[in-house]
Amino acid sequence: MSQYDTPLDLVRSRPVEGPVACARPDRLTAAASWFQTNFPGEVLYAVKANPSHWVIDALYAAGIRWFDVASLPEVELVASRCPGATMAFMHPVKSRHAIRTAYFDHGVKIFVLDCEAELEKILAETGHAPDLTLVVRLAVSNDGATLPLAGKFGAGEDEAPDLIRKTRAHAAELGVSFHVGSQCMAPSAYRSAMMEASRLIAKAGVTVDIVDVGGGFPAIYPGMIPPPMSEYVAAIRSAFEDMMVLSNADLWCEPGRALIAEAVSVLTRVELVKGDAVYMNDGSYGCLFDIVHAKWPFPMRVHRRHGAPSEETALYKLYGPTCDSIDSMPGPYSLPSDLMEGDVLEFGMLGAYGTAMATRFNGFGDVETVTVADFPWASMYDPADASEAVAAGGEDGGRVVPFARGLRRRRHRLMKNRMMKRR
Ligand SMILES: *Cc1c(COP(=O)(O)O)cnc(C)c1O
């Protein structure tokens, strides 16, 4: 991977042809250390958020040894790069071939299920193995989530107690899991889900060895500033104490977004400006899927090879490169009023569900990865550093667009309010 101090250094040193993912491995390490130090249990990385080799390798180097995998290629990826890793196959619907290969060829012993038919599949394909850890996925409310994941997976109240009981009979270790939904803005959502799980366990009347609180831990986006991560961990810790589980039960979490979101930004080049329409070389079929479909604002900067973009702004609509008309981001986005062909737009916080979502549609989808050393946006892990970097990011042609600055002010205000409340 080529290395640059900043994305602007890259833009100034050579033409930027395709989209470029700017990796910040130190942000990943900071997030991984934070979780390993502060979460009172196992931290499983949800591979689907970003399966890039450098991500898996950096997490492994940071000491992450547990991985939440959802398909055979993810199993094979982790097996090939992470000697001694523990994998949990957490997709509630697996092919028989995937179950068999994961168990017999890759030593995967942890499987999730949300119905009896899947339980039967797992038992049949592992030859009724005596060493299985079986995790029953429960359906819980996704009210606190920005991207709800309820409705597709999970055993509901009516079936769960019976399924927990039946699974107990075949499991060396039994767990329950849920997913509160992605980008969960309310720590209390974890407590509610854990209390719901506790009621279902009590109804089942069996012992449970593992409580897996899933993913959903948030990242910071403009106008979407979550409470500090420590509040999530505190809510989980106290709810765990109140659950009807053995006092020596294990606690797991499966963060995807929270570990990797901050660690990648994506550079996309402006190919044409036509009135207020900006055509870029990345879009909804590339790394910007979430920008189009989740419709929440990601932080942005503009880089120009020669000279600096104007301080004045205008409102633009953004379009991706494919011929599909849903490949568009109506925004409107506030960008320099002299935005022109060749300018490079940098979208921050795209480590999760960014490059991972890129398709080959229309011949696009190649993404180069480089490493950079700056971090201009607010961080869940060390806000002080991030604020200094935001201040520095305004110089030298790289311009932090207004809502990134607004974000910083708002975060400070929030932190001040919080500190005042404590006093
Ligand atoms: C996607 C997923 C995760 C990760 O979710 P984030 O919101 O990115 O933290 C964790 N567990 C399961 C089962 C998932 O499907």
UniProtKB/TrEMBL annotation:
<dbReference type="GO" id="GO:0004586">
    <property type="term" value="F:ornithine decarboxylase activity"/>
</dbReference>
<comment type="pathway">
    <text>Amine and polyamine biosynthesis; putrescine biosynthesis via L-ornithine pathway; putrescine from L-ornithine: step 1/1.</text>
</comment>
<feature type="active site" description="Proton donor">
    <location>
        <position position="323"/>
    </location>
</feature>
<dbReference type="InterPro" id="IPR009006">
    <property type="entry name" value="Ala_racemase/Decarboxylase_C"/>
</dbReference>
<comment type="similarity">
    <text>Belongs to the Orn/Lys/Arg decarboxylase class-II family.</text>
</comment>
<keyword id="KW-0663">Pyridoxal phosphate</keyword>
<feature type="modified residue" description="N6-(pyridoxal phosphate)lysine">
    <location>
        <position position="48"/>
    </location>
</feature>
<protein>
    <recommendedName>
        <fullName>ornithine decarboxylase</fullName>
        <ecNumber>4.1.1.17</ecNumber>
    </recommendedName>
</protein>
<keyword id="KW-0456">Lyase</keyword>
<dbReference type="InterPro" id="IPR022657">
    <property type="entry name" value="De-COase2_CS"/>
</dbReference>
<dbReference type="InterPro" id="IPR029066">
    <property type="entry name" value="PLP-binding_barrel"/>
</dbReference>
<dbReference type="InterPro" id="IPR002433">
    <property type="entry name" value="Orn_de-COase"/>
</dbReference>
<dbReference type="GO" id="GO:0005737">
    <property type="term" value="C:cytoplasm"/>
</dbReference>
<feature type="domain" description="Orn/DAP/Arg decarboxylase 2 N-terminal">
    <location>
        <begin position="31"/>
        <end position="261"/>
    </location>
</feature>
<dbReference type="InterPro" id="IPR022653">
    <property type="entry name" value="De-COase2_pyr-phos_BS"/>
</dbReference>
<dbReference type="InterPro" id="IPR022644">
    <property type="entry name" value="De-COase2_N"/>
</dbReference>
<dbReference type="Pfam" id="PF02784">
    <property type="entry name" value="Orn_Arg_deC_N"/>
</dbReference>
<dbReference type="GO" id="GO:0033387">
    <property type="term" value="P:putrescine biosynthetic process from arginine, via ornithine"/>
</dbReference>
<dbReference type="InterPro" id="IPR000183">
    <property type="entry name" value="Orn/DAP/Arg_de-COase"/>
</dbReference>
